[in-house]
């Protein structure tokens, strides 16, 4: 299924929707409605985004997502009518976070791929360096078979976001493919969106996810209508911002609590960023022989996908539950601040 073909994601007040593609947040979010066929057990689903710089030279946060339509309100309402029409989350730090978590009447958008653009791929390939032959396109491909129960036979808005402030922006192509397979890894039948703090409507006034500066962090309440067996949290996390003391470049512990008890904690950290140097022609070079794109980061690298973590939660009973994410977010440095983009989907068998 071809979703986008060489479409522009940029920042421009001239950005307009047409009959095929809807554009929001000054062109940084693009959407298309896709009808999924029946996807049977044993079939695998892959999503692939190919991206090139069309003028923006920087490493940007990107996401491919779908908008659940099973409650009276959806993220689409926020895109059309403004982010403040979505449910509000506050934790006492004075900021207002809209549309980031499930409520009785709302589900947040569900990530298919979290990706990060490389520094200037293709558009800046004229920047020559000894012994470097630059790549011309960044491919981001991920197996999303675990989301099958939420996709099969559904008609859904599929979207892509790249957070940039450049009129040239980025060019993207997006394809979703279904493959027959003899191996069925995922047996669950429930996909329950819980939270997604990535501020896709940044260019339409959505707050950065800075809620981890308070002890409460992110606290989500949800109600299960049925018992959920072999529950897993599909958790995606990346740390951003700050200067040299910012959370982008400092390892930070992520702790996840279920109903008040610690379920899992780990330090999300990527040390392999230098593997993708040839995708980053516009990366700044330092006197020590390293380039900006080489540096280790909080679970992401320029030019790569960030993998989700699958956290086993056991069997969950029908009724109310709480999930909490805590991260010791660093303080502001002058005009610079840290933020954490975290998303979580509950998988299991009802």
From TrEMBL:
Keywords: Disulfide bond. Residues 2-178 form the Peptide-N-glycosidase F N-terminal domain. It holds the Pfam family N-glycanase_C. One of its GO terms (molecular function) is oxidoreductase activity, acting on paired donors, with incorporation or reduction of molecular oxygen, reduced ascorbate as one donor, and incorporation of one atom of oxygen. Gene3D superfamilies: 2.60.120.230, Peptide-N-glycosidase F, N-terminal domain (2.60.120.1570). It comes from the Bacteria. This is PNGase F N-terminal domain-containing protein.
């Amino acid at each position: 299924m071809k979703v986008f073909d060489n479409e522009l994601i940029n920042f421009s007040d001239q950005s307009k929707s047409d009959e095929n593609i809807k554009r929001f947040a000054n062109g940084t979010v693009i959407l298309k409605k896709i009808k999924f066929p029946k996807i049977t057990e044993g079939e695998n689903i892959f999503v692939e985004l190919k991206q090139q710089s069309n003028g923006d030279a920087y490493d940007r946060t990107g996401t491919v997502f779908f908008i659940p339509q099973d409650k009276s309100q959806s993220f689409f309402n926020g895109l059309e009518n403004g982010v403040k029409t979505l449910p509000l989350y506050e934790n006492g730090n004075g900021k207002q976070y809209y549309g980031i978590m499930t409520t009785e009447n709302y589900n947040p958008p569900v990530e298919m791929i979290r990706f990060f653009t490389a520094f200037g791929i293709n558009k800046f390939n004229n920047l020559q360096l000894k012994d470097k032959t630059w790549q011309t396109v960044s491919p981001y491909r991920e197996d999303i078979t675990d989301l099958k129960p939420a996709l099969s036979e559904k008609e859904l808005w599929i979207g892509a976001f790249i957070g940039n402030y450049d009129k040239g922006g980025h060019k993207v192509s997006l394809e979703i493919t279904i493959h027959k397979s003899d191996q069925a890894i995922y047996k669950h039948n429930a996909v329950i969106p819980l939270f997604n703090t990535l501020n896709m409507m940044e260019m339409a006034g959505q707050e950065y996810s800075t809620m981890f500066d308070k002890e409460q962090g992110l606290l989500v309440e949800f109600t299960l209508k049925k018992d959920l067996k072999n529950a897993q949290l599909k958790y995606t996390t990346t740390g951003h911002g700050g200067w040299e003391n910012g959370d982008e470049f400092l390892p930070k512990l992520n702790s996840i609590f279920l109903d008040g008890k610690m379920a899992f904690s780990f330090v999300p950290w990527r040390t392999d960023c230098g593997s993708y140097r040839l995708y980053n022609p516009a990366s700044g070079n330092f006197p020590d022989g390293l380039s900006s794109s080489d540096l280790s980061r909080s679970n992401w690298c320029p030019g790569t996908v960030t993998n989700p973590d699958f956290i086993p939660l056991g069997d969950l009973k029908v009724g109310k539950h709480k999930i909490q994410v805590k991260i010791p977010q660093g303080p502001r440095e002058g005009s610079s601040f840290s933020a954490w983009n975290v998303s979580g989907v509950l998988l299991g068998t009802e």
